[in-house]
Write a structure and sequence with these properties.
Diacylglycerol_kinase_cat_dom, Tumour Suppressor Smad4, 9 helices, kinase activity, ATP binding, 15-stranded mixed beta sheet, 352 residues, alpha+beta, DAGKc domain-containing protein, kinase, Rossmann fold
């Protein structure tokens, strides 16, 4: 779609006053500096229907503070999503037009779409005019149902605190996970990809988001109906296939949390160049009841039927094909096995 068609509907300019520091140093840059160059666009991608409309209402309250706090530093560009995957398109267009930053405003679902907007056909999107050397920074203002990615950094679930973080302008590079299925098409995740029971629970939870974080409990109860632990095979770092018996859930973490605060991959670090794999084997429904607190504090990895491993890549397939083993990434339904995940080290710059 042509740029001339996109800018009027996607971008609403804020006030313009002083300039933004656009030094070439991509690590620990400060957004509050000065420069003789003109200010760049900070594009805020907002899902107004998120959290049953709460995101849109809170955004209206937050916008005056953003204009006051960030207006002197950048052009504030609002961009409201109108449906699924719209945030992907908005982000790609913003990067192509040379945006200094794209900030996801909403929950983990909005963040997931924005992250995917940093890529096109499996490759990073670059600015048309500024070239591949220009880096667009990712930002996050939590205003959705879940804020699992923010928990890894210890960030408060507070949008005003997030604006202050963006205003400070400190940035660092983080890894991004890549997931592909039988078609080979690549999708990207910043948090956790997971398979079987947890992915099925996430699929059902997405149907009950009107209940807030309770949706995760409802989703888990729905997923247990008719659930069977299943033998899967994995291939780590292009090695040999290994069989994992009676798999309940297999989680691949770039970050630590999913499902509304479960510390499922507690050793994951989005800046260490690895994915952390956690496999729960032969869990019964009562194990989740008895050990739920361990899933939230991360101590479940000490259980005898929990397997952990640090990998660069992992392939997962069924030993005996059923064709209905759920896969999700960042809480979004991806499809069914087989799947392959790998890590892209230092793929995106983010406000920290």
């Amino acid at each position: 779609m042509a740029t001339a068609m996109l800018r009027p509907s996607f971008f609403a300019r804020g006030d313009q006053s002083s300039a933004l520091d656009l030094s070439s140093d991509r690590v620990s840059r400060n957004a509050g500096g000065s420069s003789s160059r003109s200010k760049r666009d900070f594009v805020f991608v907002v899902n107004p229907k998120g959290a049953n409309g709460r995101t849109g209402r809170e955004w209206k309250k937050l916008l005056p503070f953003i204009r006051e706090r960030l207006g002197p530093q950048c052009n504030i560009c609002e961009s409201m999503t109108s449906g699924p995957f719209h945030a992907v398109d908005i982000t790609r267009e913003a990067i192509r037009e040379g945006a200094e930053a794209v900030i996801a405003v909403g929950g983990d679902g909005t963040l997931h779409e924005v992250v995917n907007g940093f890529f096109w056909a499996g490759n990073p999107v670059t600015s048309v005019d500024l070239g591949p050397e220009h880096s667009t920074t990712l930002g996050l203002i939590p205003l959705g149902t879940g804020s699992d990615f923010a928990r890894t950094f210890g960030w408060k679930n507070d949008p005003y605190d997030a604006v202050e973080r963006i205003a400070r302008g400190l940035r660092s590079k983080i890894d991004v996970g890549v997931i592909s299925g039988s078609s080979g098409e690549k999708h990207f995740f910043i948090n956790v990809a997971d398979i079987h029971l947890s992915a099925k629970a996430g699929y059902y939870a997405s149907k009950y988001k009107r209940f807030g974080n309770l949706c995760y409990v409802i989703g888990a109860l729905r997923a247990f109906i008719g659930h069977n632990n299943w033998d899967l095979k994995i291939k780590v770092d292009d090695g040999e296939w290994e069989v994992c018996n009676k798999v309940t859930a297999l989680c691949i973490g770039n970050a630590k949390f999913f499902g509304g605060g479960m510390k499922i991959t507690p050793t994951a670090d989005p800046s260490n160049g690895n994915l952390e794999v956690v496999i729960l084997q032969d869990f019964k429904w009562y194990d989740f009841v008895l050990k739920l607190h361990k899933l939230y504090n991360g101590s479940h990895i000490s259980e005898k039927n929990v397997y952990t491993r640090s990998v660069k890549s992992i392939e997962i397939a069924e030993v005996t094909s059923r064709g209905d083993i759920f896969v999700q990434s960042d809480g979004e339904h991806f499809g069914f096995l087989p799947a392959k995940c790998l890590i892209l080290p230092a793929a995106i710059e983010i406000f920290t």
